[in-house]
């Protein structure tokens, strides 16, 4: 069995977790088992790494994670319009995923780009100075419609 203090093994696990999450947006229990099998390490070790880093999600979510900022700067620039547009255009609310597994919506406090308020991040890419039309266009682009 693998030594828990082996930096190479944790790097391999982290890399595998990143690869899977970037492909499907989250990591399933089956994915964790597969990583453990492929790397020849204990499931508990893979699980511990996956749950230690907040960047990894074990909760099913869409290919694109839309984080809508509702911090003070964004709130003052009517971020509720962006949330409302996403709610109606995609038919999802905070914490929900579209039925086609494409989009998950999360409301967050500050994305660190207040000068560009209102702001969303989609898979860590920041989009600022948003309007209802702009967020629709971004969603359409990600769906391959534009
Ligand atoms: S308050 Fe929205 S990015 Fe800071």
What does this structure look like?
With 146 residues, the chain is of the alpha+beta class. It has two domains: 7-52; 64-142, Glutaredoxin, CATH 3.40.30.10. It is built from six helices and four strands; from the N terminus they run αααβααβββα. It has helices at 7-24, 29-39, 43-52, 72-76, 79-90, 132-142, and strands at residues 64-69, 103-108, 120-122, 125-127. The protein has a four-stranded mixed sheet with strand order 2-1-3-4, with helices on one face. Helix 1 runs antiparallel to helix 2 (29-39) and helix 2 (29-39) packs across helix 3 (43-52). It is elongated and about 50 Å long. Bound molecules: FE2/S2 (inorganic) cluster. Residues 69, 71-74, 110-114, 117, 119 line the site of FE2/S2 (inorganic) cluster. FE2/S2 (inorganic) cluster is lined by residues 69, 71-74, 110-114, 117, 119.
């Amino acid at each position: 069995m693998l030594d828990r203090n082996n930096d190479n093994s944790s790097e391999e696990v982290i890399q595998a977790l990143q690869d899977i999450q970037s492909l499907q947006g989250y990591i399933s229990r089956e994915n964790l088992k597969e990583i453990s099998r492929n790397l020849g390490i204990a499931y508990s070790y893979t699980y511990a790494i996956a749950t230690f880093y907040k960047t990894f999600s074990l909760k099913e979510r869409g290919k694109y994670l839309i984080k809508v900022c509702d911090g003070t700067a964004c709130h003052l620039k009517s971020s509720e319009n962006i949330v409302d547009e996403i709610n109606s255009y995609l038919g999802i609310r905070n914490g929900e995923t579209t039925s086609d597994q494409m989009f998950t919506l999360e409301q967050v406090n500050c994305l660190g780009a207040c000068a560009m308020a209102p702001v969303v991040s989609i898979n860590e890419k920041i989009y600022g100075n948003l309007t209802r039309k702009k967020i629709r266009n971004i969603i359409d682009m990600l769906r391959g419609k534009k």
